[in-house]
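Hey everyone, long-time lurker, first post.

I ran two proteins through the pipeline my lab uses and got sequence/structure pairs for each. Pasting them in order. The first:
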Amino acid sequence: MKILFHLNSMGRGGAEHVVSILSRKFSAAGHDVIVATEWFSENEYSLGDKVKRINVGLSESEETKGRISKAFTRLARLRKCIKKESPDLVISFCAKANFRSAFSLFGMKTPLIVSVRNNPVEDYAGHRFSTRYMEKKAAGCVFQTPDAMNYFSKDFRDRSVIIFNPIDEAFLTPLPETLPLSNEKKIVNIGRISKQKNQMLLLKAFNKVSKSHPDYTLCIYGGSQEDDIYSSLKKYVEENALTEKVKFMDVSNNIREEIMGSAMFVLSSDFEGMPNVLIEAMALGIPSISTDCPCGGSRILIDDNVSGLLVPVGDAEALSNAMDEILSDKEYAKELGNNAKSIVSKVLPDKICKEWEEFISKALKAAR
């Protein structure tokens, strides 16, 4: 089968991570795989030697044009790529790429599978016409959670499936017998610095908990994509004398080595799809806390008070109390971390890829 994936880029995001794993697995299984993206990012996931990468984005001069002109140029470029490559199937990830793929395939018989990767209330509510057209055009959709699926129409849900994110195989290799001692007093957060990820909530909770646990540091891994948010975080750190305790780290290609053996992982987001970083932290046995945010991914991954802790969205006091609970009881923290490792059996790459292949076969059969 010839499969064309479409998404904005292969930068270090959750959807991009999934596409990198699926494209490598599918190409290894003998499929002809193409990944068509709008732009190249500075730090990208690998696609492997067998996967063809095509740029369908705008040139520098085209980027200076108006919004409508740019939108139609993107559609035309993707449509031209699809016609030239003639794939058996197009699979798109995330709202804008889903809309783009649906409209690019207007009048064409090439089947489309879309994938919703974030809270649909945030990504689709303001785009009713595009959303409805996507629902009608797609042969099916891959969701991550029931909450996300339930946002859409019944006929669309009936052609859809829920599939977890696969874990990167690097996280499946055995951990060293002795974990880095330097990480024992390290609290970690991973994710781009943005309003969605709400690192300010984490800073406020850490500010409180560090008063009773002064020997712990907080490391936030993630490039600054929203400068005003980054500036406000830096200002808070400076005003609360946390400069020596809070470290803003660059995105790491060796995040496993960076965080293994950490005292705690915290996800403070206001909304998420199914957070890969939480899956990876749990797989490493790191005691983990997450906001119980829409659209329910963290709630599916964490069995509260068994394999991690869930706290209400935006509640700094509840988050600081949960952090204190883990830091104050090493046996409890160890139990949470050990239980968290059970997530691995649900997200094995081969298992997830098989589920994708089964759904693709079902969707293609229904589309004929």
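...and the second, right after it:
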Amino acid sequence: MDEVNALMRRYDGVVPGASLLVVSEGAPVLHRTWGLADLENRVAATPRTNYRLASVTKQFTAAAILLLLEDRKLSLEDHVRTWLPSLPPVLDSVTIEHLLTHASGIVDYEDVIPKGTTAQLHDADVLHLLESQDSTYFKPGSRYQYSNSGYALLALIVERVSGKSFAKFLGERIFTPLGMNNTVAYEDGISTVVNRAFGYTMKDGSWTRKDQSVTSAVLGDGGIYSSIDDLAKWDAALNDSRLLSDESRRLAFSPQTATDKPDVKYGFGWRVTGETLWHSGETSGFRNVIVRYPSRRLTVVILTNRDDPAPYETALDVAKIFIERR
């Protein structure tokens, strides 16, 4: 489609690329790619290319919590210190629901990483950093502030409750049942990413690999790698009860918390804006977005292996093309 090609032109050629998925009426109607997944080895992006999802991961972390809720192994009202008792008493009133909706007030772990840290942090390291914090940004439950700390703690709660590693739980309860066979919460030295896209940044007029940072190994807030092929299966599962019950999906998709933007609310791992459910993901070398229009049965996913630009507006423009053609 010429209109879509025009929107995606910046990703075409010998540059960091992009994968685009459009699902309409339950079926993929467009899955196209542009550019390269690996510049150094001239590997083209394909629909099977796996990108680091960054904060698009959060909807999977939330789904893991909802599965344990359905198993009756936890409650949304559980206090976080019930499962992670090493956290400081200042967090006594923080609940699992507060973590899901970014209403905990917990300090951002990225702000308290010791200077000079070069080794990658893991979710357990986030817990250790927060153990020494004796204050919160605000009274838990009183307002919203986006929190990567909260989602790292949710991953640890999944581990404590299930008795399995977060990555294994996701694989057994979400990825394998849905046939997302190449999606993984990546752990260096433990798992691999097939068909991997590497991240890039523009530096001094040329693209430079910028694939990892000190926080890239934290899984709960952003550590999943996936492709548009696999995300088509994830999107399909969000339309019925094959994975999550009707009630769990209602909770995830409902506007639970007002955010710092008047037109955006937050559910469980999803932003709610007008008729859309969406989430973006931004990390070292990657920018991604998923935008769903449930009432129109339309979804747009854009995955990119570069740190600029954010693809949210492009996804809206792609959606507009398909809406206007109906």
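Reply from user beta_strand_b:
Welcome! Quick read of the second one: DSSP finds ten helices and 15 strands in the chain. The chain has a mean pLDDT of 97.
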